[in-house]
Amino acid sequence: MSSRPRLDSRAKSHLSYFAYACHRFSGLLLASFIPLHFLMLSQSLRGAQGFEQSLALTDLRVFKFGEWALVILLAVHLAGGLRVLIMEFGPWNGLRKGWIQLSTLFGIACGLLFLYFAN
Amino acid sequence: MGQAMNQGVLQAKLWYAQRISAMVLGICVAVHLVMIFYAIRGGLTAQEILGRTQGNVLFAFFYEVFVLACFIHAPIGISNILQETFPKSAIAKPVAGALGLLILILGSAAVLGVYTGGAL
Fold first, then answer.
1. Count of the separate structural domains present in chain A
2. What is the pTM of this model?
3. Domain range spanning residue A33?
4. Contact B50, B117 (CB under 8 A)
5. Residue-wise pLDDT tens digits, A41-59
6. Cα–Cα distances in Å, from A80 out to A65, B29, B51?
7. CATH fold for domain B2-116
8. How many cross-chain Cβ pairs, A to B, lie less than 8 Å apart?
9. Which residues of B touch A46 (CB under 8 A)?
10. DSSP string of A26-59, one letter each residue
């Protein structure tokens, strides 16, 4: 049914498949979340008080966890996207595995920074 | 033949649009991440957010550019995923179109909201 080529386990265990999967997964989740994020922020049209009422929702634990996850996904999608751009527009120089490791570390670092700053 | 060619040209244009918007988003997301870490210290309040954004043309311009880049980038990505996963269904176009509209309308409303603080 899918139009993607069939990949065997050898291809799927490759680090660049992991990068592809992370980029897809993070992009899909970010795209699903963005309209909700904008809906929340557009409540500011109701004035400071109306906006505050909507923001109170974000104090719930489940929202805090969601925010944390989204910051990590955003960081991973940013670093992974830079890798794609460098591979496509830069001179050909392999699969940039260093970028995959860097994306992973960047995601972890941003997740930890969020935990450090959020209360 | 002609139709396949048009399809190919469209694919190339969409690929290019997604990459150009990705370059803009790369800068926007990096700035946004720094802003998030700055803003979440001590929790988020409406007063605090509006204090930063209300009447600030630079903020409004930056975030509207961000919204427009998302409006281009996200629907193309979603459409690619849907087309690859369900190549025989016609679901990709309407879903991508709906997502694009939601991002453009809600995103611009959000920028307008935090710029005006609801005082329209």
1. 1
2. 0.91
3. 14-117
4. yes
5. 999 999 989 999 988 888 8
6. 22, 13, 34
7. 3 helical TM bundles of succinate and fumarate reductases (1.20.1300)
8. 130
9. 118
10. HHHHHHHHHHHHHHHHGGGGGHHHHHHHHHGGGG
